[in-house]
């Protein structure tokens, strides 16, 4: 009897110890295909995969991805992990990249617009949609590339942050291509791939090239998971989990239509 009681106590204590290990992930609650509060994004799926691999309970800190996001999440130690950050950013420590994607030209499949490049003369007579961040110094690589080519008069900007009162605000630029409001959208790959798959009209996706005509603003980026700089132990564990689950990670990305560039 005493032995059974001791065993029961040990099991209970072990359960408590497991319950105390929590992976707290910072994520945007309204930002498909990356994440939302319902857990429907691919970064939600990857966060669950990391938590399971680490034997941890998954917890979220929800914060809209606006300026100050890192300062108010990882910076204030409210969370441990930020999935989906550009590799090598200075604000956080980043894991080895787990995918590489590109900005994409998004056009309607029923329009004769295949084979575009940034130097294609057709762009001068087309209505172009480009994602914007805010002031010029922080704008997206395609917006800088078009400005360098003098292509500003026929460009409509779509704020990356968008109208947060509507679901998944960054989808607006792809919807503009669907409706014919613009002829060409220059869109970050995961957004382009996901919303093209759910579009009511067939869309064409092609990589924006040249992908590197200004080293400050490449069209291709490697994506990592970010952790606090003072937590190298967690970074090592997350990197190990990413490597161990490489095939599952890529299966999740494929499910969401994320365009992958060779070498990812």
Q: What features would you describe in this structure?
A:
The protein folds into two domains: 2-99 and 221-255, D-Maltodextrin-Binding Protein, domain 2; 102-207, D-Maltodextrin-Binding Protein, domain 2 (3-Layer(aba) Sandwich), CATH 3.40.190.10. It is built from eight helices and twelve strands. The protein is of the alpha/beta class. 31% of the residues lie in helices and 23% in strands.
Would you spell out the secondary-structure blueprint of this structure?
Blueprint lengths: L1 H19 L1 E6 L2 E2 L3 E2 L5 H12 L3 E6 L6 H4 L8 E6 L6 E2 L4 E10 L19 E5 L8 H8 L6 E5 L12 H8 L4 E5 H9 L5 E5 L12 E8 L4 H13 L1 H10 L9
Parallel strand pairs: 1-4, 8-9, 8-10
Antiparallel strand pairs: 2-3, 5-12, 6-12, 7-10, 7-11, 7-12
From the spread of the alpha carbons, the general shape counts as elongated
Order of helices and strands: HEEEHEHEEEEHEHEHEEHH
How many independent structural domains? 2
CATH structural fold name of the largest domain: D-Maltodextrin-Binding Protein, domain 2
Descriptive keywords:
D-Maltodextrin-Binding Protein, domain 2, two-stranded parallel ribbon, 264 residues, alpha/beta, disordered N terminus, 8-stranded mixed beta sheet
Question: Can you give me a brief rundown of this structure?
Answer:
This protein has eight helices and twelve strands. With 264 residues, the chain is an alpha/beta fold.
């Amino acid at each position: 009897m005493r032995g059974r009681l001791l065993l029961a106590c040990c099991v209970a204590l072990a359960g408590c110890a497991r319950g105390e290990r929590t992976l707290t992930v910072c994520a945007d609650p309204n930002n498909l295909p990356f994440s939302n509060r319902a857990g429907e994004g691919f970064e939600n799926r990857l966060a669950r995969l990391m938590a399971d691999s680490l034997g941890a309970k998954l917890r979220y800190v929800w914060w809209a991805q606006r300026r100050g996001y890192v300062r108010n999440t990882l910076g204030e130690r409210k969370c441990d992990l930020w999935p989906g950050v550009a590799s090598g950013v200075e604000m956080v420590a980043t894991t080895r990249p787990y995918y590489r994607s590109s900005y994409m030209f998004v056009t309607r499949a029923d329009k004769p617009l295949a084979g575009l490049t940034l130097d294609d003369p057709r762009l001068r007579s087309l209505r172009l949609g480009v994602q914007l961040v805010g002031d010029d110094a922080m704008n997206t690589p395609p917006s800088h590339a078009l400005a360098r080519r003098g292509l500003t008069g026929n460009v409509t900007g779509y704020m990356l942050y968008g109208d947060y009162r509507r679901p998944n605000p960054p989808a607006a630029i792809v919807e503009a291509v669907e409706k014919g409001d613009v002829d060409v959208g220059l869109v970050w790959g995961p957004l382009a791939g996901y919303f093209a798959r759910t579009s009511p009209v067939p869309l064409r996706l092609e990589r924006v090239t040249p992908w590197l005509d200004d080293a400050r603003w490449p069209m291709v980026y490697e994506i990592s998971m970010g952790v606090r700089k003072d937590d190298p132990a967690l970074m090592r564990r997350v990197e190990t989990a990413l490597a161990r689950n490489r095939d599952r990670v890529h299966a999740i990305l494929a499910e969401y239509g994320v365009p992958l560039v060779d070498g990812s």
